[in-house]
Structures are given as C-alpha cells and as structure tokens.
Amino acid sequence: MALPITQNVGGAMGNPHYDVGILGLGYVGLTLATVLAETGKRVIGVERRPEVVEATNSGRPHFSEVGLEEVLTRVTQSGQLTATSKFDPETWCDTYIITVGTPLSSEGTARIDMIEAATREVAANMRDGALVILRSTVKVGITREVVTPILQESGKRFDIAMCPERTLEGNALQELRELPQIVGADTQEVADRAAAVFRHLTNSVVQVSSPETAEILKLVDNTYRDVQFAFANEVARVCDAFGVRAHEVISSGKLGYKRTDVPLPGLVGGPCLGKDPHILMQSASGKGIVLEMAAAGRLINERQPVETAEFIAAEIARRELPSPLEIRILGMAFKGIPATDDLRGSMSLQVLAAIKKQCPDASIGLFDPVITPEVLRASFPEERVFSRIGDAISGASVVVIANNHPALGRISPRTLREFVSPNGFVFDFWNHFSHLPISELGDSYFGVGNAGVAT
C-alpha cells in the first residue's frame, strides 16, 4: 500500500517544498525524476497506480532499464525522490513536469484525458509563479489549447513550456545526461527558466520559438524514423519477389557511398514509432493537410505481421508439416537493442495475433530474454511460456524470431536446425544471420527480405 504523503516527506525533515514535481511515473517520468534527484534536486513524483508508488519508494523500478535500480535506490533512500498517489495540500513545487501517457484510443486518436487530469492536479497544487512543463507527446496545440486554459482557471500566475521527451528505452539515463533537451516557450524569459531545469542534466539545450514548434519537432523525429524503416521494408518486399537478399542489397549499397544509408528491414513499433506518426497525421488533418508519406509508412509497417504470417502459413503447407504444429515466438518486447521489457506497441503482439489467425490449431509458445516468465504468463494466459530459449525451440515446427535482442542471434542456423522438428524452419524478422552465406543458412532459415532465397 502506498505511504501517505506525510510519511513520505518525513525523511526530508517534513519540508513540504520540492524543487520539481513530476506527474506520472511511467517510463518517461520515473527516469527523469531519478536523474533530476541525482543532481541534487528534491523531487516528488505523483502516480495513481499504488503498486508503482510503493515500488518507487522502495527503490525498485517497475520496468527494466539499465542502471536505473541502483540510482533509484540511492535517491529514494537519501530522500531526494519521493513518490505519492496525490499531492498533499501543504506540498508545493517550483516546477511541475507533466509526463503522463497519451496512448491511442480505440478510434486511433491520441487520448488527452490523462493530460487534462494531471493538469488539474497541478492547477490545484501550484502557487503563484510556478513553472509548468509539458513533456508528454501530444497533438500539436495541446500545450496552448488544453493545458494552458486549465491552469488559467486556477487564477494563479504561472509560466508554461513544452519540452518533449526523446530518450531511447534501455539507454535513458545516459541520454538524459547527453541528448539536447528541446525547450519551446512563447517568451525568452520562460524559455530560459525551463532551460535552467534541464541544464542540471546537460549543457546541451535547444530553445525553439514556441510550444507548437517543440510539439511538432518530437512528432517529426519519430515519423522520419518510421518512414525510413518503412522504405527498408519496401526494399525487403522487392528483394523477396526477385529472390535476392535484402541484407546484401542494403549493406553492399552503403559501402563507400555516403549518399545512401538505408536501414535494415524489420518490425517497427513500440510506444513511440507506432503512435507518433498517427498523432502528427491527426494534427495535420486539423489544418486540412494529408501527410501521404507518413500514412504510407504506417501502412507498410503495420501490415508486415500479416504478410509474413501468410508466408509462414504457406511455407508450413509447402513443407507439409504435421499437426499438431508447435510454433514458438522468441522476443515479445518491442525491441531488444537496447534491451527492454516494454510490451507497449510491440509488433510481436501483432505477429502473435496474425499467426494465430493463420494457424488456429497450432500450439504457440513464447520466450523473451528480458521479460520474466511470470509477466509473460500474466500477459498471454492462453500461450505456453518458456524460461529458457533451448526449451522453447526444442521440437518446434516453426521458430519466429520477433525482436533483435542479441541472445536471439547466438544460436546459429545450423544449430537451430538440430533443435527444431524434422523439416521445421525459422523465420527471423530481424535478420540476425543474413550476413552469413547461403550455404550456412540452408533451406530452414528465412528472414524479412530473405524469404525467397532459401535453397
């Protein structure tokens, strides 16, 4: 059970004043709160989930992030960081940072209900002169059109800035200290004030001319990456059609030729790339603009699980693999480099759904190098869960490698062939082995952009 706020602040001699209050202790909020506290700031984090409050105050992160537990333990034990489920009326902060989530609704639009709720909490708690920073990823205009009016209703004076989060999961603590921090505000005075908060983390601060500029900047960054990966997946489709290897085409094309830097193909998702292009498109549609390239990128990346599941089903039929089919999916987190246990927006979930639709009678088993078996069982109660990769692949009809964690690329195709059932095969979304010659891959290994090459 969460400790009451009076007990939380008792370790800091009952002082109700904090330098920074952070609304939302998800991935963005907890990492930021921890690093700010490490710089000497007194930080209070507000989080509605009682289990997260309790874990935070015990120094235990509720997600996997390199180095976080060590620092979190240190700053909570020292009293620099405190978590609570709501502000005490006597508590107040110089700066409030809103980091709550903005997931897509069932209609595909970015939700703002959590932004509104967090802003009301700030409005009720802040004193005259507070600085409010919005860090959540939002549709363009939310800072000015949603957050500001709610704060104004309080009748209190405040400054507001938009400073988007841009850290890479698995490398967040380092990037918070190194990445340029974007600051968008209407006046230089407010921009300088917000910049001063982040200069406790890094000297690299980029000031832009308005909150809208900062909002768009974040969306453009991730949409650009999404479109890049979509083009790589288009290259893979062409290579499959002509029976050549996408890995060879892309890797060879880069050698000594700086004008081309096509990424390798693979699954594209996660809490940012799967969402932010949609938010940018929604923002543009409000001005009567259709972002055709962004839309095409999302179409390509979102249909990939279905296309590859169709290939897998066709290959099962071609090989006449006997029932009951034993299909294994390795890597359920949305990525493996840097490693994470985050399932939000993971395309592995779409791969699982597509395979179940194509092969409804198959027995499907799951393994992830980072996510614990307990979490996998709770998240996927209908599937069999494995705690060791060897057990997962042993006797499998089909092995699907669905993220790029290095552990999934340590068993060579030759060894994999020895583990899987006779005439079974491997489909690798991340081309862990496509750099090897075809003679090493044999006829039991396929990858994105390598599906028409096996001999």
From TrEMBL:
Keywords for this protein: NAD, Oxidoreductase
Pfam families per the UniProt record, alphabetical: UDPG_MGDP_dh, UDPG_MGDP_dh_C, UDPG_MGDP_dh_N
Domain of life: Bacteria
Keyword Ribonucleoprotein: no
SMART domains hit by this protein: UDPG_MGDP_dh_C
SUPFAM superfamilies per record: 6-phosphogluconate dehydrogenase C-terminal domain-like, NAD(P)-binding Rossmann-fold domains, UDP-glucose/GDP-mannose dehydrogenase C-terminal domain
Stretches assigned to the UDP-glucose/GDP-mannose dehydrogenase C-terminal domain: 328-435
Entry similarity comment: Belongs to the UDP-glucose/GDP-mannose dehydrogenase family.
Protein name: Nucleotide sugar dehydrogenase
Source organism of the structure: Mycobacterium hippophais
